[in-house]
TrEMBL record, chain A:
<dbReference type="Pfam" id="PF04066">
    <property type="entry name" value="MrpF_PhaF"/>
</dbReference>
<feature type="transmembrane region" description="Helical">
    <location>
        <begin position="6"/>
        <end position="28"/>
    </location>
</feature>
<feature type="transmembrane region" description="Helical">
    <location>
        <begin position="40"/>
        <end position="60"/>
    </location>
</feature>
<feature type="transmembrane region" description="Helical">
    <location>
        <begin position="66"/>
        <end position="88"/>
    </location>
</feature>
<keyword id="KW-1003">Cell membrane</keyword>
<dbReference type="GO" id="GO:0015385">
    <property type="term" value="F:sodium:proton antiporter activity"/>
</dbReference>
<keyword id="KW-0813">Transport</keyword>
<dbReference type="GO" id="GO:0005886">
    <property type="term" value="C:plasma membrane"/>
</dbReference>
<comment type="similarity">
    <text>Belongs to the CPA3 antiporters (TC 2.A.63) subunit F family.</text>
</comment>
Automatic annotation (TrEMBL), chain B:
<feature type="transmembrane region" description="Helical">
    <location>
        <begin position="80"/>
        <end position="102"/>
    </location>
</feature>
<feature type="transmembrane region" description="Helical">
    <location>
        <begin position="55"/>
        <end position="74"/>
    </location>
</feature>
<dbReference type="InterPro" id="IPR005133">
    <property type="entry name" value="PhaG_MnhG_YufB"/>
</dbReference>
<keyword id="KW-1133">Transmembrane helix</keyword>
<feature type="compositionally biased region" description="Acidic residues">
    <location>
        <begin position="123"/>
        <end position="144"/>
    </location>
</feature>
<keyword id="KW-0472">Membrane</keyword>
<keyword id="KW-0812">Transmembrane</keyword>
<feature type="transmembrane region" description="Helical">
    <location>
        <begin position="22"/>
        <end position="43"/>
    </location>
</feature>
<protein>
    <submittedName>
        <fullName>Monovalent cation/proton antiporter MnhG/PhaG subunit</fullName>
    </submittedName>
</protein>
Length: 94, 184
């Protein structure tokens, strides 16, 4: 029983590595998306993965002072992607 | 019973604490696997709507699973309520962005129309789309297809006036939700 918390911490570290890998895949889509909307969707997913990574870091360290940061990024990410969607529409002129 | 109820805050390494940590870790692992699957789908799916389908997984379900896991790890009242707030914000704000992006993708060329079975947002249904609405209102609205003809008639009775009013260009300037961006 005493080795179970260490095992859980190891699992959370592996989860952080997996999140970094998936963020790299999303960054590939962000860099070579054919249209601006593809990049916008990829950027939204990247923000969501950043939130997930922050929550996993909080769970790993037990440091609860980052929880308001998660709340703030959840709101600001929504505003940014909606605004950028409007500029994508005006910019391409379609 | 009172000792068991007072158990979790004083000793975080008790049996209940370890069990809650394990359940939270399992939830976090499920959320991370969903995130990885969504990233692979974001790379391999063909058009914007399909990629939005993949993108919803870490935005809503993955984040909710990870937030539940983080709340099971922290187990403090303020932190749990703030994580509940994160989940609620994400549930409220994800459909807003999805609506805007989906509407713009349908207006531009972000939708591969050969992959769609039904395109309900197409505006000129008479020559481009041999869909379920235009033949039944014109020819046979009497036999058998009464409900479908009624529904299609209600759908296409509003579209020509609106399309004649605000058609900017031939194909996609006059979808029924055109007030989404022409309002401001």
């Amino acid at each position: 029983m005493s080795s179970l918390p260490a095992l859980l911490d190891t699992v959370l570290g592996v989860v952080l590595v997996v999140l970094g890998l998936s963020a790299a895949l999303v960054a590939v889509r962000l860099l070579r998306g054919p249209s601006g909307l593809d990049r916008l969707v990829a950027l939204d997913v990247l923000v969501a993965e950043f939130l997930v990574g922050l929550v996993v870091y909080i769970a790993l360290t037990g440091d609860s002072s980052l929880v308001p940061v998660v709340v703030a990024i959840s709101l600001v990410g929504f505003l940014g992607s909606t605004t950028v969607a409007r500029f994508v529409r005006r910019g391409t002129g379609r | 019973m009172s000792a068991l109820r007072a158990a979790p805050p004083p000793d975080p390494d008790g049996t209940l604490g370890v069990v809650l940590d394990a359940v939270g870790t399992v939830s976090i692992v499920l959320g991370a696997v969903l995130t990885l699957v969504a990233s692979v789908g974001l790379l391999s799916l063909p058009d914007v709507l399909s990629r939005m389908h993949a993108a919803t997984k870490p935005q809503v379900l993955g984040l909710l699973l990870v937030v539940i896991g983080g709340a099971l790890h922290l187990r403090t009242s303020v932190d749990v309520w703030m994580l509940v707030l994160v989940g609620a914000f994400q549930l409220v704000t994800a459909p807003v962005t999805a609506h805007v992006v989906g509407r713009l993708a349908h207006r531009g060329d972000g939708v591969r129309s050969d992959l769609l079975h039904v395109d309900e947002l197409v505006d000129s249904a008479d020559e481009t789309d041999p869909g379920p609405d235009s033949p039944e209102t014109d020819e046979d609205g009497d036999d058998g297809a009464e409900g479908r003809g009624d529904r299609a008639g209600a759908g296409s009775a509003h579209r020509p006036q609106r399309a004649a009013g605000r058609s900017r260009d031939g194909r996609n300037g006059s979808s029924p939700g055109g007030s989404l961006d022409s309002g401001e």
